[in-house]
Amino acid sequence: MPVKIPPTLPARTTLERENIFIMDEDRALHQDIRALRVAILNLMPTKVTTETQLLRLLSNSALQVEVTLLHTATHESKNTDADHLLNHYVTFNDVKHEKFDGLIVTGAPVEQMPFEEVDYWNELTQIFDWAETNVESTFYICWGAQAGLYHRYGIPKYDLPRKMFGVFEHRLLNRTSKLLRGFDDIFLAPHSRHTEIRRADIEKQPELEILAEADDASVYIVGSKDGRHLFITGHSEYDPLTLKGEYERDVNKGLPIHVPKNYYPQDNPKREPTVRWRGHANLLYANWLNYYVYQVTPYDLDQIPQKP
Q1: 3-state class of 279 per DSSP?
Q2: Can you say whether the dihedral through the CA atoms of 242, 80, 281, 118 is positive or negative?
Q3: Distance (Å, rounded) from C-alpha 303 to C-alpha 300?
Q4: Angstrom distance (rounded) from CA 131 to CA 224
């Protein structure tokens, strides 16, 4: 089944060119199916790029997904056209009385700031609290994962001596986890961050479980044992050239940056990077939608209960 998006969304052209099955609202209305309602809180400055990456992964499922794009009202985006936000995004105030099957919270380029100094922190924590009663399962990415762990469990983030940047090997820690069904024992995923969360802090929280980690990229996937919160510290949604773009951007700005690890063949930035994480990225999102959203969400969204 496809992801349902507006015909004017820029991502539509990209996804159609990639032969990804998408559907407009008119066609969806003629199918006797309740689409899963998934909200994406897009905190990234390059919103069109991020929404395209996530829609690509959400579309690779047998489930029909209706997407609502959210942006913060307390932060003015300087990198996204105002008309794009006006035509395709809503704010929390627009949906706070609604319920959703799933919520995705993206990363944001604010990880080196204290959480409370982020200008939309109060609004973000309101959304986190609202999700407890209005969303069946929430999927947090990178800084979004750090923010969710900090707000809900008090788990801090720590500065890294240098940026965690590249594609890293991860290993499964719970082979029976539904989220990891179909995963290889060792799988790859990209990271791009200046901070980390630590295993010792997570292990103090009996509600949490570490599902996957890497020797040189630390904790990767953390889940609440009730399945309602999944924290992903990396960027499995990244396109083939996203790390290349970030690397060249920083080089051109004269910023201290190293070649992304395990990304270019022989770590040579003059060579074309090879994608080795796409299969597991698709599995991650498909498993979340199927086992943590579709299989457990009530048909009547008003019946989503408050769960501690």
Answers
A1: helix
A2: positive
A3: 6
A4: 14
Q: Give the H or E element holding residue 55.
A: helix 47-58
Residue type at 254? G
Residue 31, beta-bridge partner list: none
For residue 287, the SS3 value is: helix
E strand or H helix at 248, and its extent? helix 242-252
Q: Does domain 3-235+280-303 have CATH number 3.40.50.720?
A: no
Calculate Rg over the CA atoms of the chain: 19
Classify 75 in phi/psi space as left (phi over 0), alpha (psi -120 to 50) or beta. beta
pLDDT-derived band at 92 (thresholds 50, 70, 90) equals very high
What integer pLDDT is reported at residue 108 of this predicted model? 96
Average pLDDT over the chain, rounded to an integer: 90
- Mean pLDDT for the stretch of residues 17-29: 56
Residues 189 and 178: their CA atoms lie apart, in Å, by: 18
Bridge partners of residue 286, in order along the sequence:
none
Q: Do 91 and 72 touch, CB atoms closer than 8 A? A: yes
Q: What residues does 157 pair with on adjacent strands?
A: none
- Which alpha helices (H) appear in 109-241, and where do they start and end? 121-134, 143-153, 199-203
Residues of the chain with CATH 3.40.50.880: 3-235+280-303
Q: Tell me how long the chain is.
A: 308
Active-site positions read 142, 235, 237
What is the crossing angle of helices 47-58 and 10-17, to 10°? 50
